[in-house]
C-alpha cells in the first residue's frame, strides 16, 4: 500500500486519476490531493470518501511514496525536484522532462523495463504519441518501420477542461444564434477544425508535431525512424483519432498486420468494411484500449500500410498510461 499524491487534482486529468485508481483497485493507504491556491478547500470523492484539496507547495511530499503530476509543464519544473528530494517517485504527465536523457519515457505495452531505470522521475508521453506507438510497435517488431506519416484529429480534452467547456459553450451559442467566445483555442472550434496544436516552431512544424516525432523515436528506441506529423484540433470532446501511413523494411500484408495487432497488448482491432465497422472517437470515450481499423495496403508504396487509430485522450493518452506505469512499478 502506498501514500499517493496527485498534483493537479482538480484538472481534467486529475479527475480521471481518481476514477481509474478506484476502478483498478490501485493499492493506496493515503491519498493527498494537491492543486493551486484557488482550489484549496474543495473536496473530491474517492472510494466513497471526501478528500479536501491542499495547496501544492515544496513541502507537500513528505511521506509520499508516489506522485502523479498533471499540473502543467511549469508546475512540474517548479515542484517535481522537491518531490524527488523528499524520496517520492514522480510520474509526470507534462512535457517538462520527456526528452531528458536521464528520464525514462514509458508506454507499458512497449518499454515497461525502462520504468525501473528512473532516478525519481518517469515521464508520461504526449497523448497523441501514446496511441500511435501502441499500434506502431508490434508492426515495427515484425517488419521494421522505416517511415511514418501521421495526421491527427485531436479532441478538445487535449486542452483540458477549459477546452471541452469551450466546445460545448460555442455549440450552445451557435444553436441560439449568439456570439461565440474564443479563449482556450486559437480559433473557433465548434463546427470547425484547425491544423494548429501548440505553438509553431522555426521548421514550420508545431511543437505538438515535433513531440510525436522525437518521443516516438525515444520510446521505440528507433532514432533513425523517419516521422512526419500534422496535428489537427477537431470538435470532439475527449478521444483522439489518427490516420497513419507506414513504410516497412519487409513487406506486410493487411491481413498479416491485422493478425499482429489483434494479438498485441492494449489493442482492439475493429476493421470491417461496413458502416460503423471502424473505430470512432465517440465509441472510445472512457475506454482503456487503443482501437485500430481501416487497415489496408498503401496503393502508393509496395511496402506501405495505412490504418486508423483511436483512443481516449484522458485515459490512455494521460491518466491511464501513468497509472499503468505505476502498476508496473508495483508489480516489480
Q: Describe it for me?
A:
With 332 residues, the protein is an alpha/beta fold. It has two domains: 2-125 and 318-331, 3-Layer(aba) Sandwich (Rossmann fold), CATH 3.40.50.720; 129-313, Dihydrodipicolinate Reductase, domain 2, CATH 3.30.360.10. It is built from eight helices and 14 strands. The strands form three sheets. A six-stranded parallel β-sheet has the order 5-2-1-6-7-8, with helices on both faces. Strand 3 and strand 4 (49-52) form a beta hairpin. Helix 1 (12-23) packs across helix 8 (315-331), helix 3 crosses helix 5 and helix 3 packs across helix 8. The longest helix has 17 residues, at 127-143. The protein is globular, with a radius of gyration of 20 Å.
How many extended strands?
A: 14
> What's the CATH topology name of the largest domain?
Dihydrodipicolinate Reductase, domain 2
The 3D shape can be described as globular
Structural class estimated from helices and strands:
alpha/beta
How many helical stretches? 8
If you compute it from the alpha carbons, what radius of gyration comes out, rounded to the nearest whole angstrom?
A: 20 Å
Spans of at least 5 consecutive residues whose pLDDT stays below 50 are none
Amino acid at each position: 500500500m502506498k501514500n499517493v499524491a496527485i498534483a493537479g487534482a482538480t484538472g481534467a486529468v486529475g479527475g480521471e486519476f481518481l476514477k481509474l485508481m478506484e476502478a483498478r483497485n490501485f493499492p493506496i493507504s493515503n491519498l493527498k490531493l494537491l492543486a493551486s491556491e484557488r482550489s484549496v478547500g474543495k473536496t473530491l470523492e474517492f472510494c466513497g470518501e471526501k478528500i479536501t484539496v491542499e495547496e501544492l507547495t515544496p513541502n507537500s511530499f513528505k511521506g509520499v511514496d508516489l506522485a502523479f503530476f498533471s499540473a502543467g509543464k511549469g508546475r512540474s519544473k517548479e515542484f517535481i525536484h522537491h518531490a524527488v528530494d523528499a524520496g517520492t517517485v514522480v510520474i509526470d504527465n507534462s512535457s517538462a522532462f520527456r526528452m531528458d536523457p536521464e528520464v525514462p519515457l514509458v508506454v507499458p505495452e512497449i518499454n515497461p523495463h525502462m520504468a525501473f531505470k528512473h532516478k525519481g522521475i518517469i515521464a508520461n508521453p504526449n497523448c497523441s504519441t501514446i496511441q500511435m506507438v501502441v499500434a506502431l510497435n508490434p508492426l515495427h517488431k515484425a517488419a521494421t518501420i522505416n517511415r511514418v506519416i501521421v495526421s491527427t484529429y485531436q479532441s478538445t480534452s487535449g486542452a483540458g477542461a477549459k477546452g471541452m467547456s469551450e466546445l460545448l459553450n460555442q455549440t450552445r451559442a451557435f444553436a441560439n444564434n449568439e456570439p461565440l467566445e474564443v479563449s482556450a483555442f486559437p480559433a473557433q472550434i465548434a463546427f470547425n477544425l484547425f491544423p494548429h496544436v501548440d505553438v509553431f516552431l522555426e521548421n514550420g512544424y508545431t511543437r505538438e508535431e515535433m513531440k510525436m516525432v522525437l518521443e516516438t523515436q525515444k520510446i521505440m528506441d528507433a532514432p533513425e525512424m523517419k516521422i512526419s506529423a500534422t496535428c489537427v484540433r477537431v470538435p470532439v470532446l475527449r478521444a483522439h483519432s489518427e490516420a497513419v501511413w507506414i513504410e516497412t523494411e519487409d513487406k506486410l500484408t493487411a491481413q498479416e498486420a491485422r493478425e499482429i495487432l489483434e494479438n498485441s497488448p492494449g489493442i482492439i482491432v475493429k476493421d470491417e468494411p461496413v458502416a460503423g465497422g471502424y473505430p470512432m472517437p465517440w465509441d472510445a470515450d472512457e475506454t482503456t484500449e487503443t482501437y485500430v481499423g481501416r487497415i489496408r495496403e498503401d496503393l502508393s508504396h509496395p511496402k506501405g500500410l495505412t490504418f486508423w487509430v483511436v483512443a481516449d485522450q484522458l485515459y490512455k493518452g494521460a491518466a491511464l498510461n501513468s497509472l499503468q506505469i505505476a502498476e508496473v512499478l508495483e508489480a516489480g
